[in-house]
Amino acid sequence: MEPAETNRGPAAPAFAATAPQCPRARGDGRRPDQLRPVRFHNHIAPYATGSTLIEWGNTRVICGVMVEETVPRWMKEQGVVGGWVTAEYSMLPYSTLQRKVRDISKGKLDGRSQEIQRLIGRAMRAGVDLVKLGARTVWVDCDVLQADGGTRTAAITGSYVALGLALRKLVAGGTLAENPLLRPVAAVSVGLVEDTPLLDLNYDEDVRAKVDFNLVMTATDEFIELQGTGEKGTFTDLQLAELLALGKVGIKQLVAAQEEAVAAG
Fold this sequence. Notes:
Layout: E1 38-42, E2 50-56, E3 59-68, H1 73-78, E4 84-91, H2 103-106, H3 111-126, H4 130-133, E5 137-146, H5 151-172, E6 185-193, E7 196-199, H6 203-208, E8 211-218, E9 223-229, H7 237-264
Parallel strand pairs: 4-5
Antiparallel strand pairs: 1-2, 2-3, 3-5, 6-7, 6-8, 8-9
Helix pairs in contact: 3-5, 5-7
């Protein structure tokens, strides 16, 4: 499979941010304000209602969407109108250099995976009119094939594309009268590495970062979630503002790539 193509029609092209005011290069040659290349390979899972493989640098995540014509029991019991969007996330055993044990072999979902899949679900619900969705449940499944930093941001960004493809298919097939998508949703990481604000941390940068954030935002500059901490140090309000500004630049570029991938079908 060629990296610039989907199974049906062209995918979003290799994509990287451009801004000449930050000349200093990073270990992989990027500027501090530059995204890693992002590609989408649509329809990677033929039985899913919508699916894409997002390649973001060396991180690769399959995002698939399937629909059930029912809603969770709590919605029925509480008389909640509309539908629901939920997510599951996992890292495959061969996604890291050392084999990752499957959760099923431990008998429970690890805390990190649980946190991330809840985050994905919240992010996707923020992009959908649940009333227009109707009394149905949309499942978003994210499986990490290869991890090199930013797996949760890649999962969220890819999930929106898979969701967009799925909902378009439901409209085309007459299941939905109108598309319930409200606005694109994307996510990106930012951090301070050696006191330099960086956009889109890879693994090497992530482990060295003294401060790192994950920004989950809409295309209209609204925050869905902001996860951040001083891992190895503190940060000032000025540094926070710089990181948020970097993140917003990245989100706008990711949204453009998402919209192109969904439009490609």
